[in-house]
Amino acid sequence: MKQLYSGTLVVLTLSFFSLSSSAQSGGTYTAIQPGNWHTPAGPGIWQAAEPPQDCSNCLIILNVEGTVNLNTNVNLSSNSTVIIGGTGNTTVLQIGNSGASNFANSFSLIMSNDGTTNKIELANGSALVNASGAGTYDGLLTSFSSGGSTTYFKQVGTAPSGFVNNAVESNGPASYGTTLVGAANLNSQGTLPIILASFSAVVDNGTVDLAWSTDLEINSDHFTIQSSSNAGATWNTVGTVPAAGNSATVLNYSFTDNRPASGTSEYRLVLADRNGNTAYERGQRLPQPCFGLYQRHPERRCLGERQYPSHQPGRPGAAGKERHQRRWNDRSAVGQLLSDG
């Protein structure tokens, strides 16, 4: 399974905020009682009308005492906002299992990264999103469309967490798990998705050849290659490689470290977008240097083959070469290390 590495998207802004609202050209939709979000006919829980499934520049307010069951799909675009909870009320947004095989028929709120700020706000500590019983395509998500494909990242819900169109690309957990408690603010502004298909390092005649490939890039600027000879305590930049910017096809990258440090070294990639945001990937140190590490001295290479868990595959090479194929954890954070924790 390829890792859907979302860079600045993976962790959306999570912060305290002041509740405010303003006129929205797409309309304001206010729930006045708990119950099902969608009803076949009539306003149901809504003061006047139910929000449309494609909600452009909308304001949706769920400030009721009780539970609102999300039983439809709503796409938020063009500065749309959903506010959950408010003064004096304990509001729960419950997301169940739609049994759907696509997003169009799912129980989901999807924040589009369309260059505007689409967000879901939990107004206070009594506001809760509970998606512990949600299905594959259900939950709170962000999306980014490019080159005829749409990439989805699940922020609250059950695994899997990453999709291209309706195909699963990452089986990891959602960024915030199955529940989210306020006060909090989820938004899709600054999304930087990338699908990393592979990452390898090979020792060859005193140099280290690194190679990686991507299946999808959006708004990427460059990769920085860094190495550490002290188990990740400090990192040194050894080179940079320009990124494609936007691509929906497989791209291959490579870099050679001609002056590797003596002893054991570990390599990581730092991805930067055109707005200056960065996200990190690093290998994990294991008891013997077969995975994510480079040994300059062939007499210290790993001998034999060791079995690792499915998310930490390692395979020592032969003839004095160590090789690793890096797979990815399904969660990361801006400015933090991506690890196999």
Walkthrough of the structure:
- The chain has 341 residues and is mainly β.
- It has 2 domains: 3-187, no CATH class; 194-325, Sandwich (Immunoglobulin-like), CATH 2.60.40.
- The protein is 0% helix and 43% strand.
- The protein contains no helices and 28 strands.
- The chain has strands spanning 3-5, 28-30, 35-36, 54-56, 59-62, 66-70, 73-77, 81-84, 91-95, 108-112, 119-122, 128-130, 139-146, 149-156, 162-164, 167-170, 179-181, 184-187, 194-204, 207-218, 220-228, 236-242, 246-247, 251-257, 264-273, 278-282, 293-295, 323-325.
- A hairpin with a 7-residue loop joins strand 21 (220-228) and strand 22 (236-242).
- The model is unreliable at 4-21 and 283-341 (pLDDT under 50).
List keywords for this structure.
2 domains; mainly beta; 341 residues; seven-stranded mixed β-sheet; elongated; six-stranded antiparallel β-sheet; Immunoglobulin-like
Structure summary:
With 341 residues, this protein is mainly beta.
Mean pLDDT comes to 75
Poorly predicted residue ranges: 4-21, 283-341
Number of helices: 0
Count of individual beta strands: 28
The total tally of domains equals 2
Shape: elongated
**What is the gyration radius calculated from CA atoms?**
23 Å
Q: Approximately how much beta-strand content do the residues carry?
A: 35-45%
Strand order of the largest sheet: 4-7-10-13-14-15-16
Distance between the termini: 18 Å
Largest beta sheet, briefly? 7 strands, mixed
Order of helices and strands: EEEEEEEEEEEEEEEEEEEEEEEEEEEE
